[in-house]
Design goal:
Four Helix Bundle (Hemerythrin (Met), subunit A); mainly alpha; single chain
Length: 205
Amino acid sequence: MLTDLTIREFLKKTASGDPVPGGGSSAALNAALAAALTEMVANLTTGRKGFEAVDAEMRSVAEEAVGFRSKLTADVDRDADAYARVLAAFKLPKATDAEKAERTRAVQQAFKQAALVPLGVARDAVAIMDLGRTVLSKGNPNAASDGAAGVLAARMAARTAVYNVRINLGSIRDEAFTTELHREADRLEAEAEANEKEILKLVKI
């Protein structure tokens, strides 16, 4: 599994000629890092003198961030697995009409999954930006740079994930499916952009 690699090993594998890990896994990793940074700021706020009024809220934020971190860590491998299924589908036999039909079905199904995984990452990244808004507006100001780093990591993850959605949609023939995912990808990209402008105004450094 990619997530079992050391940082150095992961970077080396990313830099190699292998198709995975690529942009999709990178988006998931950045979103997981965003969740971890947001969790960090929340944990640097709970139990601290002067922050009693927001203690329960920060504990809730930290708990949400734990969930996102766990899911997105798994998405690093989930995205790579989805693309591996695309490659495997293209290798299916196509000597007969029946084989061609099965190969086409498998390829289309694989591309749909390859689009759905980064769409989920984009959704989660935007949600993490909302958590970042909370820790930057109410959390420990001494960790403001860490909170900002989390928001920016989530912003990058959202945009990268959206790009990976779109590139996979280009190979899918199901018009209703592609229309729906394009619509949500556009919405998530716009929301992430608006969030970035709004949330970073809270960073007083």
